[in-house]
Amino acid sequence: MSSTQTPTALFGIDTLLGEEERAMQQTVARFAADRLRPDLAAWYEAGDLPARELAKELGDLGVLGMHLQGYGCAGTSATAYGLACLELEAADSGLRSLVSVQGSLAMFAIHRWGSEEQKQEWLPRMAAGEAIGCFGLTEPDFGSDPGGMRTRARRDGQDWVLNGTKMWITNAPIADVAVVWANTDEGEGSRGVRGFLVPTDTPGFSAPEIAQKLSLRASVTGEIVLDDVRLPASAMLPEAAGLSGPLSCLNEARFGIIFGAVGAARDCLEVALSYVGDREIFDKPLAAYQLTQAKLADMSLELGKAMLLAIHLGRLKDAGTLRPEQVSLGKLNNVREAIAIARECRTLLGANGITLEYPVLRHANNLESVLTYEGTSEVHQLTIGKALTGVGAFR
User: Fold this and answer.
1) Cβ–Cβ contacts within 10 Å for residue 178, how many?
2) Cα 101–chain centre separation
3) Distance, C-alpha 366 to centroid of its chain
4) Is residue 286 in some structural domain?
5) In terms of domains, do 166 and 185 share one?
6) % of the chain surpassing 90 pLDDT
7) End position of a domain, from candidates 242, 259, 291
8) CATH of the domain at 229
């Protein structure tokens, strides 16, 4: 056969990246190849992974909160952070989720909305992977509508007392601190929402693990149960009032997903390209058939467009001009295309595609969760629709 090109080389993606960005991407890719990929199938099958051990190693690598400034954080560009997410999710969405929740949700919440004392207490240890954080917003009955949350925080003298339940919280069962959002009586409607830092050894706090997942199995997911959890006044994030606090954190996490989903899709496509070159059917490689090449061409086109979109949004974020509706464009498109690519690649692998010997169906199953969390496709469609029409259609 003639010489081949990878999909990203076909688009000339490397020419769009700076030297430091490529170096960061290569560093994380090597870590994923050496430390993560050999055990991923076993972790996925077992529904468990050594999260605390990996968090320390990821801290040593410098990727936890890497796009934040100070407090032990690397202070990289947003684009470099996105590329790190891409390589982590090319290994497994669960590993990118671990880093995303730590850096873009829990650490960002403290960095953006916390007091100086809170930052000094938590951020250096979290950047090093010595302390793990989680982010408690979603509830059993309130996902896309966080303003309806039932978790309450009431004043009792100088203290706050929290009661409620959060659901589908990555890292919760192993976390040292939970960023918990609750309704208070100090503001009308959703303006009364405040954030609290809850050390997980606080009496009344529990985080039972959610078992029997068919997706994100190489990730630790749990509930948060708050039963008269008493906190000092200093536990409240002083700069966050209303839903703008948690929603700003979600936008940070969605940005990582824009790149991460491309990583999962790229891994599927690279595996499929290798497979069809080796697999012979009717006395010639599967790659030699027109229908196979049509599938590969279409998938490469969507992968390349998704990567170009991710880099463009990364440049906007680095310039400080990225808007929430643009984040929705990236999350909606890139996850939707990634899951379509994963499913199509599975067809090229045939029956082999359903085994853990190949990562394709593992990626597809993981992307089912990514498609839903940090805003469902429908929520992002309505966000884009509002930006286009000026009319909100959420209710």
Assistant:
1) 26
2) 7
3) 11
4) yes
5) yes
6) 92
7) 242
8) 2.40.110.10
The structure's pTM equals 0.95
Are the C-beta atoms of residues 164 and 149 closer than 8 Å to each other? yes
208: left (phi over 0), alpha (psi -120 to 50) or beta: beta
Q: How far apart are CA 104 and CA 188, in angstroms?
A: 28
CATH of the domain at 310: 1.20.140.10
Domain-ending residue, one of 64, 97, 127: 127
Q: Look at the chain and report how many structural domains it folds into.
A: 3
First to last CA, the chain: 56
DSSP state of 144: S
Q: Is residue 186 part of a domain?
A: yes
CA distance 22 to 205: 42
Sign of CA dihedral 112, 118, 123, 129: negative
- 331 token code pair: 């999350």
pLDDT at 142: 84
All residues at 6 or more sequence positions from 343 whose CB lies less than 8 Å from its CB, including other chains: 364
CATH number of the domain at 80, please. 1.10.540.10
Residue 324's CB: how many other CB atoms inside 10 A?
15
How far apart are the C-alpha atoms of 184 and 207, rounded to whole Å? 22
Q: Are residues 249 and 383 in the same domain?
A: yes
As given in the structure block, the two tokens for residue 366 are 């993981």
Its domain, for residue 297, covers 245-389
- For the chain, list residues with pLDDT below 50: 1
Output the CA–CA distances (angstroms, integers) from residue 179 to 76, 79, 240, 295, 340, in the order listed: 24, 26, 12, 44, 34
The answer to whether residues 338 and 349 belong to one domain is yes
Residue 1 resides in a domain: no
| Cα distances (angstroms) measured from residue 123 to each of 22, 126, 128, 201 | 26, 5, 9, 18
- Same domain for 278 and 235? no
Residue-level pLDDT at 5: 86
236, 195 in Cβ contact below 8 A? yes
**Chain centre to alpha carbon of residue 49:** 17
Q: Please report the pLDDT score of residue 1 as a whole number.
A: 45
Q: 């536990």: which residue's tokens?
A: 235
Contact (Cβ atoms closer than 8 angstroms) between residue 317 and residue 79? yes
Give a yes or no: residue 160 inside a domain: yes
The verdict on 205 and 83 lying in the same domain is no
302 a catalytic residue = no
Other Cβ atoms closer than 10 A to 366: 30
